[in-house]
Amino acid sequence: MDEFNLFKFLNDDNEILQAEDQHSRDFPTFRVHFGEYFDDFLPSQAQNPHNPESTESATNEESQKPPQELDVSRFPIISSDEIQELKSVASNKNTSRSKKQWMNVFRSWCQCRHLEYVSIEKMAPEKLDKVLSKFYAEVKKKDGDDYEPESLKIMQSAIERYLKEKNYPLSIVRSREFHSSQEILNAKAISLHQQGKGKRPNKAQPITPEEESALWEKGQLGDFNGKVLTNVNFKNLTEQLGFRGRQEHYDAYVEDVIIRQREAGTEVVELREGPTKTRSGGLTIRRKTTPQAMFSTDGGKSDPVRLFKL
Q: What are the DSSP calls for 195-222, one per residue?
């Protein structure tokens, strides 16, 4: 191995050579001949890394590129209105209706108190906290009765949602700046509970076998006309496939269900779940792992699969 020579890395003034100067001295022929073609292999903004003007020039050229030359086939340009429309898809219809309803209640309260209604999203937190405290304490139904405690929570959430959509910087539910109004609302809910509010049953009770038999005998369920057939299928789909309320029945498509024959020869109606009120199909929503199915019984008049196929 050749002996390391420190002096070949020094110039005439005993200063350390830069790498490119060293290569230039050791390989002058290589630098001259290869350098003629080397620039062709570099991007335009990197051809002269020591000259910031070359990079700035390339950037200016990109910024001055006319819009018609931009490739929008893969990344189309979306307007602000289209972005808002996309966001509205994730908003449940009932949620939007609730927000509108409670904001109308708030505006009506402002009019009754001879308050000049201003956009609450423009109010300072201190002022808005005072306004909400008074509103929470005084709000009632049109007939003068108090709202249920759960309704007060929905009301607060609706106002919170409105403010969030208007980019209000604080939360009227969690921020300490709204501690007073939060206390007022909580105290009113406690008072209403003590008065017996909020004790209504929160779900419908299933009909008993005796009640169902009576419906068949009275002709309310059956297959002899379209009305009673709709009734019995509404009941079966609700009980066995988990449809909730009229809206899910209305939103369902024929393609959402499939009739499959089992190995034993009996048939089953299986549901392929689509978006629902509480399971909208977003990234954080998990699909049900257990199949939703309605099984055939004896093929008689009350067989749910037979009635569904009619």
A: TTTT-S-SSPPPPPHHHHHHHHHTTSSS
Question: What pLDDT digit, counting tens, does each position of 70-92 carry?
Answer: 677 778 888 888 877 776 665 66
Structure tokens at 26: 């050791």
How far apart CA 191 and CA 261 sit, in angstroms, is 57
Helices (H) and strands (E) in the chain, counts: 12, 3
| Terminal-residue alpha carbon distance, the chain | 95
Do residues 129 and 170 lie in contact, with contact meaning Cβ atoms separated by under 8 Å? no
Name the CA radius of gyration of the chain, rounded.
36
Per the listing, tokens 């890394």 go with 49
Question: Is the pLDDT reported for residue 248 higher than 80?
Answer: no
| Main-chain dihedrals φ then ψ at residue 289, nearest 5 degrees | -85, -25
DSSP SS3 for 294 = strand
The pTM is what?
0.50
What amino acid occupies position 195? Q
SS3 at position 52:
helix
- The answer for residues whose C-beta is within 8 angstroms of residue 270's C-beta and 6 or more apart is 257, 258, 259, 260, 291, 292, 293, 294
User: Which residue, among 209, 216, 213, 207, has the nearest Cα to 238 in the 3D structure?
Assistant: 207
Phi, psi of 41 (to 5 degrees): -95, 0
